[in-house]
Amino acid sequence: MDYQLISDRLNQGCDRPSYTLRCTHCGTTYAADPFRLHCEVSHSPALLRAVYPNPRLEIKPHLPGIFRYVDWLPVDQALMTTGKPITYASQGLAAHLGLDHLYISFNGYWPERHAQMLTGSFKELEADAVLARIPADHRRTLVIASAGNTGRAFAHRCAAFNRPLCLVVPAQSLDAIWLPQELEAAFKSTVRLIAVEGDYSDAIALAQIISQMEGYFPEGGVANVARRDGMGLTVLDAAVTIGRIPDHYIQAVGSGSGGIAAWEAAIRLRADGQFGSHTMKLHLAQNLPFTPLVNAWKAASPVLLPLEENTARQQIQQVSAQVLTNRHPAYSLTGGVYDALWDTQGEMYAIRNREATSARWLFEQLEGIDISAAAGVATAALIRAVTAGAVNPQDCILLNITSGGLQRLQREQSVCLPTPDWVIQPDELSPDQVARIWHSLTK
Ligand SMILES: *Cc1c(COP(=O)(O)O)cnc(C)c1O
Ligand SMILES: [Zn+2]
Questions:
Q1: Of 435, 418, 431, 9, whose CA–CA distance to 190 is shortest?
Q2: Long-range contacts of range 134-137, CB-CB < 8 Å, 24 or more positions apart?
Q3: 253 lines ligand 1 (CB under 6 A)
Q4: How far is the centre of ligand 2, averaged over its atoms, from the C-alpha of 49 (Å)?
Q5: Does pLDDT of 314 surpass 80?
Q6: Residue 8 predicted with pLDDT over 70
Q7: Helices marked H in 273-302
C-alpha cells in the first residue's frame, strides 16, 4: 500500500484560504490556523466552527478516501487513504422494521461494500482529517489520550503517514492498539506509546501535561474542527448517495462529538440547497447505566447533572460499549450537544446491555456483517424509535454504524500489538515528576 502524501497544497496557485473559523457564541472570525482550538474573547465555553469558501459541495472524485469531500474539510493537503464512510440502502433490517427508506452509514471493514477503514471505526475519519489539518512539515509532536478506537486510528495513521505521535492509554486498554503487521516498524519509529496504570481520566491528565511541554501540542478533542468535520462526513456521504438530507440521524454517543458533527454537516447541506432544506433530527443513544447525556436532556437541563465520582466509576464498569463512557461529554458549551438536540428537536435513548446485544445480533443476521457494541446501541435506539413512533415508516433514516467488520478484519489480517515505551503510575502525575521522567526518557 502506498501511504505517501499526495499533494502538499491543494490550493496551489489559488490565494483563497481553505477555511475560516467562526465562534458559535460571539461570532468572532479567525483566519485559517491549524492549531486554533478556541475563541479568544472571554465568554462561556463555546465551539469554533469552520466556514468554507465554497457553500456548494463539489465532490473531487480523483482524491483518495475522505478527501473527495475536501471542499468541506479544514485542510490544505490530501493524504493517501482508502477509508471513507459508505452509505447503502438497507434491505434486511429495513424489511424487518417495516421501514421504506432506511440507510446505513457503515464505518469499518466490509470489502464487498468497499468499506475499507482498516482501523475499524469512524474515529479513522477524525484521524485523517486532523492529520491533514497539520502542515506536513510541522515538527512538534501531537499528543492524544484514548482508551480505544481513537488511539488505534491515530496510531495507525501516524505510522502510515510518518507523523510523530505521543499516545497515552490506560494500561487496561493496550489491547485496543493493534495494527497491521506491515506498519509495526513505522509505528516504532514514529509513535511513543505510554501506558498509565489507571483509567481513562488518568490518561487524559497525563496527556494534558505532556501536550503543554515544549515540542508537543494537544489535538483538542471536540474543539478541533477537523475532528468534527471528519466525523460529519458520514452525513455528507449519505446526502450525496441518497440525494437528500436524511430526516433522521441515529448514533450512539460518548463525548457527543459525532452528534454535533452530524448536526453541523446537515446545517451546511441545508445552506447548500442541493439536498433539501429540511432539518435532520438527531436521535442519540447511550448505554445504561452510564447515560449522563440522556439524563441531562430528559431533565430538560442545559448542563450535565451532578454525578458522584464513585457512582460514575461503578456505572462505567457495567457498560458493555466502553467507547460510550466519556465522563466529560461536550454537552453544555455553545454549539454542543444540548444546542444540537434543541435545534433539531432531537431525542435521546438509554439502552440496556441486553437490548444492544440482541440488536447487534439482529443486524448481523439481517445485513450480513458483524458490528461493534456501540453500533449495537445505535441499532437498538432505532428499534426503540420505530416502536415509539418517533420515526415514520416512510421517513428517510440514517443509521450510523460507527464501527463494524472488526471480527472479519481480524480474521483476514495479521495484526501486531505494540508494547508500550513506558508504563507510568498515576501517582507519578505531578507536572514536576512527569517533566523529570520525560527528561530522563527522551535523552
Ligand atoms: C467514539 C465512538 C462513538 C461515540 O462517538 P462520539 O464522539 O460520542 O460521537 C461511537 N461509536 C464508536 C465505535 C466510537 O468509537
Ligand atoms: Zn467567541
A1: 418
A2: 134/34, 134/163, 135/34, 135/77, 136/5, 136/8, 136/77
A3: yes
A4: 11
A5: yes
A6: no
A7: 292-298
Distances (CA, A) of 15 to 9, 33, 58, 227: 11, 15, 19, 25
Q: Helix/strand/coil (H, E, C) string of 206-236? A: HHHHHHCCCCEEECCHHHCHHHHHHHCHHHH
Q: Which of 400, 403, 407 to mutate to test the pocket of ligand 1 (most atoms within 8 A of CB)?
A: 403
pLDDT value of position 14:
47
Q: How far apart are CA 84 and CA 180, in angstroms?
A: 18
> What's phi and psi for 102, nearest 5 deg?
-95, 120
Provide the grid cell at 409.
478484519
Dihedral (Cα; 261, 266, 272, 276), 10-degree rounding: 170
173-227 pLDDT, tens digit each: 999 999 999 999 999 999 999 999 988 888 988 999 899 988 999 999 999 999 9
Ligand 1 contact, 252 CB (< 6 A): yes
Please state the atom number of ligand 1 nearest to the C-alpha of residue 148.
15
pLDDT digits (tens, 9 = 90+) for 215-265: 999 999 999 999 999 999 999 999 999 999 999 999 999 999 999 999 999
One-letter amino acid at 289 equals: P
Average pLDDT value over all residues in the chain: 92
Residue nearest to atom 12 of ligand 1 (CA): 402
CA-atom Rg of the chain in angstroms: 21
Q: Is 259 in the pocket of ligand 1 (CB under 6 A)?
A: yes
Torsion of CA 319, 238, 336, 123, to 10 degrees: 50
Give one word for 417, left, alpha or beta, with left for phi > 0 and alpha for psi -120 to 50.
beta
- Residue in the structure block whose three cell numbers are 478533542: 221
Helix 337-344 with 257-272: angle, nearest 10 deg: 50
* Among the listed residues 277, 284, 227, the one whose alpha carbon sits nearest the alpha carbon of residue 251: 284
Tell me which ligand sits closest to the C-alpha of residue 40: 2
Answer yes or no: are the C-beta atoms of 341 and 299 closer than 8 Å: no
**What single-letter amino acid sits at 159?**
A
Retrieve residue 167's grid coordinates.
Answer: 499516545
